[in-house]
Structures are given as structure tokens and as C-alpha cells.
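Action item from last week, closing it out:
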Amino acid sequence: MGSHYDSEETAKIIQRCIESFASPNPRNRSRAAQKLGQFKAQIAVPHLIQQLQSDVNTYVRSACAESLGLIGDSRAIFPLMDALSDPCSFVRRAAAIALGQMQAKEAQAALLKTLNDRNFYVRRAAVNALGKLGIPDLGTFLLPLLETSDSRMLRTTITALKRLRTRQAIPKMIALLETYVHDPHQRELTVVKTLVVALGDLRAEAAVPVLTRVARGYVGARSLAVIALGKIGDPQIYPVLIEALSSKSINLRLAALRGLTNLAHVDDPAPVRELLHSPDSRLRRAAILALGELGDKAAIPTLLTIAQEDDSPLVRPAAVEALGSMGESALAHQLLPLARDANAYVRAALAPTLATLDPGSTDVLVALRVLAEDDVEHVAAAAHYALHQCKAHPPKPREAPTSVAPPSEAPAVAEELPWFKRLLRRW
């Protein structure tokens, strides 16, 4: 809700919560603090800070720390840093989480000190918070934690190092993953998944061999490994992705399609084109978007048919979008009739596609102006944006229409209108 209250009633609720801090019942004070955080009530920040520093009840202090993190007001940073020394571990943990939520760079030294806290959950919250600060140098202090035997702390450390883009951690992450692949156990699956995601997000090319083995055989992590390989984008992963397209697992095939879109070049997109005829609409849609990214012009005839006839309301707009990536201006003329399509998603996808394919066409401009008056808000918004894109392109001479003739009963002036407007008048 932010600092601007939505109504007078909301302001009254916030005021009652602030007044509840005077209640002798700690449950009332704790609930009041929680609600102030939910409302993101900045007006209550001084009151929450006071309770954090002075309330005798640990649950109230903890709730105040949590709410201050949700509100995100910088006035709370130093009080929360002081709370990292609170006698109660619940409060210390809540303060560390809050500082991470606020990305409070001022707290880096205090959080580093908290890595030595006597409570495991406080230490773990500090690692997570440090990962959110966005200070790359902090990764150096977290690297030793990759040696921990506790899977919970290990997952938190890997995620924090990924967020900090600590590339020095890549060799150790690869070695860990190699160990798990060599001797897999179900209880380690969550760590394997975390490692796979981190190596993909770090674009770790050295991890391609071990990620390939995971993609081919580590049950439960195969799809994530395929996605990670796609993010790395090394050309040598192409056979792995094509292999995954023939899997019985829908999720694995979808992941492979996502991965293919990140490759700079694909020698033969034919296996992807085959999925355009899949009975599963999710696969058809993902294949369409992949072919659009790959610029596979051999798929154009099928994509046109899908854009016009597919029985899925979400597949057809994807086909329109993919056709916009093909760079064939002649496609714009073939797509113009979709401006009257009953599917609003198709009409919304059509606007940027027309502006991309043939921005200087008079007929395209007429179609976009019609779409800009659409009753559906997001269709009209897409058309207005597309018209703005077209302004940089001078209109091209309009060719005489060949496929549509004006109705005989139309007034003679209709002959002077663009062919697309005459077509709309006929409809």
C-alpha cells in the first residue's frame, strides 16, 4: 500500500495499531507491529524503532524488525544493525533478514560480524542478507562456507555467491556438483538444484560437461540443467538440447526449447519445427517462440496457419509475435485481417508485429489506428505504442489491393479510402 494511504479507513487502522503499542498485552503489540509492516506504513517507522529498542517482549521486537524490513525506510538501518546484538536469536535473525531486504550496504560490516553468531539460523540469515547487498567483494568472505557439511547453509551460501556474481566460486561449485553426480542421493537433490541454477546464472562455461551429465541422467534436476546449459549458450550443447526434445518429459522438452533460444546459431531447427504439430499447446507455443528467436523462415507457412487457425487462444498470439521476428515485410499484408480477430491477445500481438515488419506501410498505419480505438485497453495501448514506433518511418506508396474489392452498395468515396479501411467497412 505504500506510504500513501488508500483511504481514510486505512489511516484509522494504522493509527489504532500505533496506539496498540501502549497495550499491556504483548500479543496485541506484536499483531500491531505485523499489521504496520503489511500496510508499509512509513508514518509508523519511529514507533516501530522505539518498540524494537525498548519492548521487553522478544516476539514484539522480532515483529518490529520484520515490519521495518518490509517498509524499507532508511531510518531503520542503524537501529536494525544494533538489533543484530539483541540477546534473543529471534530478534537477531529478524534484523538480519530485514537488512537484507533493504539492501542496506551500510550494514555490511555488522552482517560480516554476524557470520560468527552462536545461533545457526542467525548466521544463515546473515549469509542470505550479505548476498542481497550487491557488493561483489563480499563473496570472498563467503567462499569458505562452501566447505560446510550442512545442506541448508550450503544452499544459502551458493545462492548468495550467485547473487554477488562471485566467479571465484565456480571451480568449487563444479567440484561439488561432480561429487553429487558421481554418487547421487535423493536427500542431496535440493543442493544439486541450487548448484545447477547458480552455474547457469553465472554463465560458467567450465560447467558444461558436468551439467550435460546432469541433464542426461540426474532425475529431478534434468530440466534445470538444460535451462542452465541454455543460459551458458555454448554451441557444444546443441546435441544435448536436441536430445532433450525427444524426451517423454514435457518439462524437459520445454526447458530445451528455452535453451535453444539462447544459442547464437542453430544449424538445423527442423526438430523444433516438428513440435509445431504437437497436441500439447504448451509445446506448440514454446516451439513457436523458439523459432521466432531463431529466425527460422522455413517455419513461416506453418506459423501463418497457426496464427489464423490454432485452437489455443494463447498459441495464436505467439505465432503472430514469432512472425514479427522473421524480417519479411510481405507478411504484414497477410496478417492485416487479424485486426478483426475475436481474440484480444491476437490483436494485441498484431500491433507490434505490424510495426516491426512494415512500419512505413500506409495500410499498416491505418490498421494500427483502428486497433488504437479497440475496446480492449491492452490492445489499444499496444497499438498506440506501435504507432509511436512507426513515426520514424515515412509512409511508403500504397499498392492497389488485389484480393479485396469494395462492396457495390458502398458510397463512391470508399474507393478513395485505404484498402484495409474498406475491408473493415465491408465487415
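Closing note: Residues 329-427 form one domain.
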